[in-house]
Amino acid sequence: MSFDIYQKIFDEDGEVLEDKIGEYQVQLLDLFAESPEGLKLLETGQQFEWSNVMLDFAFNYEGVTVTLLEPEELETILLEHFPRKVSTQADQAPAIIKELQAFFRFLGREYKLENAQLCLEFLENKTTLPRFKKEMSNPANFGMAKSMVMEGMDQGYDMTTDEGINQWMSVYKAANILGNLPGLPGLDGPKAASSLTTNVNKNRQKEKARRKIAKASRRKNRH
Q: Which residues on adjacent β-strands are paired with residue 10?
């Protein structure tokens, strides 16, 4: 069965249809992986990772599918959501941009999406990568969860595994109790994990409200 890139994945209130979004995302990324653009990227030794993250932000924070994603929204994803939420070093910026360029080339060729070409032009702009790398390297942009993860990475812990995360949290709590861990103020000892969860939930609620406002504005402008 062919993939319908225009299929409905939001309800009337602009909320993601959970029973649709996962399959949509998997099918689209599988097609990208099998495309000339995807295969060419794989030949360079780069694995697919960032297109999925970008789609998550587009769906869940910007409230749009790839058929409606505009350069302004992609700019928000790269310069706000990635720096605040994606726990990776800034030196990954070229690889992220490279993969997203391939992804939007695929969308433009395969589905003839005009907005995909505009997004590609934004990604290929010579100012985009330096701006993106700068924002990714600025700790002031990091959300609470990312700050915790990046600090753990800087301390040498493997934050991609549960074991590494648990080890870092134990050290972090102990250091906070002793008062000798710099950075990340406001999280002390046993309250660290619960405070982190509370802040993450608050941020999600704020993003949800902002997304509804933005989506309503886009609907008004497009009619």
A: 16
